[in-house]
Amino acid sequence: MSNTLSSNAHIDESLRAKVYWWLERPDRNAFGPKLLEIILIALIILNVSAVIIETVDSIYQSWKFAFDLFETTSLCIFICEYLLRLWVAPENPNSQSRMSWVRSPVAIIDLLAILPALLYLLIPIDLRILRAFRMLRLLKLTRYSPALSMLLAVFEEEAGAFFASFFILMLMLIFAASGAWLAEHTVQPDAFGSIPSAMWWAVATLTTVGYGDVTPITIAGKKFGALITVIGIGMAALPAGIIASGLNEQIHRRRSSMQREFRKALEDGMICEQEEEDIEALRKQLGISSRAADHIRESVYAEMKAKIGITCPHCGKPLDHESSNT
C-alpha cells in the first residue's frame, strides 16, 4: 500500500514538473514552451482587441454569438492556466508555497483577468463594466515582456515610497482645497462652495493639468493658486523620480547578472557553445540588447584579463577576445 502511494506521488511530481516546464519555460530555448507562450500572448491581444471592437454596438450586435463564444473559450483557457500555475507553484524555486505564489503580483494579475467574468456569472452586473474590467487582461503581458516585468518589479519594490508620495499628495490636496475654499467661496459659491467642490481645482492644479474650467478670481485666490501650481510641479516629479530611480536599479541588477554569467563562463579561459547558448537565453530573459551584452562581454573580458590573465587551457598562451568565444 505504501509503495503504491509513493509511486503515485512520484508520478504526480513528475507530471507537475513537466507542466511547470511547459508553463514557466525554465528552458528558454525549448520550442514547445515558446510556442505555448506565443499562443497565450496572441490570445491576450485578441481578447483586448475584442473588448475594444465590442464597444461598437453595430459590430457587436451583428457578431454577438461569435464574441460571446470567444469570451467563454478565452475565460475557460485563462481559468485552466491559473489553476495549472497554482498547481505547479511548488516547482518554482522563487515560491516557497502555493500561498506565496497567490500573493505574487503576476498571480494577482492572472486572477484579476478572470475574476470579473466569474463575478458576472454569480452577480449580474452592467455588461459595460465587465468589458472595462476585461481590459485588465492586457496586464498579463507583464509575464512575457521583460520591460513590463521590470516596471512591475519597480512598483513592487518601491511600494513604500509610492505610498509615502501618495500620502503627501493627499495632504497637499486637502490643504489646497481648503485654501481655495477660504479665498473663493464667497465670490464663486458654485465652484468653491465647499472643500469637496474645491478639490477638483486642487487636483487639476497639483497635477499641473490646469483645465481652466475653474480658476480663482480674487487676489488672495490667485496668489494661493500660483503657490499651489509651483508646489504641484514638485509633487508631479515625485512618482516620476521614484520610477526612474527604480528602473535604473533594475537595469543595474540585470546587467550585474549578465556580468556574473560572463565571469562564470570565463573561469576556464573560454566560452564554450553551451555557455554561449545559456548567456544568450539569459540575455533574452533579462531584456538586455545585443549591443549592451557585447559591451558587458568586452568589459568583463578586459577586467579578467587585467587581473589574472586569460590563457588557453591547452597551450597556456594568452587568448584574445575572438578566440575566447570559440
Automatic annotation (TrEMBL):
A Pfam family hit: Ion_trans
Keywords of the record: Ion channel, Ion transport, Membrane, Potassium, Potassium channel, Potassium transport, Transmembrane, Transmembrane helix, Transport, Voltage-gated channel
SUPFAM superfamilies: Voltage-gated potassium channels (SSF81324)
Membrane topology term: Multi-pass membrane protein
Source organism phylogeny: Bacteria, Pseudomonadati, Pseudomonadota, Gammaproteobacteria, Oceanospirillales
Organism, scientific name: Litoribacillus peritrichatus
TM region positions: 35-53, 65-84, 104-123, 161-183, 195-212, 224-247
Subcellular location per the Swiss-Prot or TrEMBL entry: Membrane
InterPro entries registered for this protein in UniProt: Ion_trans_dom, VG_K_chnl, Volt_channel_dom_sf
Domain spans labelled Ion transport: 35-253
Protein's recorded name: Ion transporter
Coiled-coil annotated spans: none
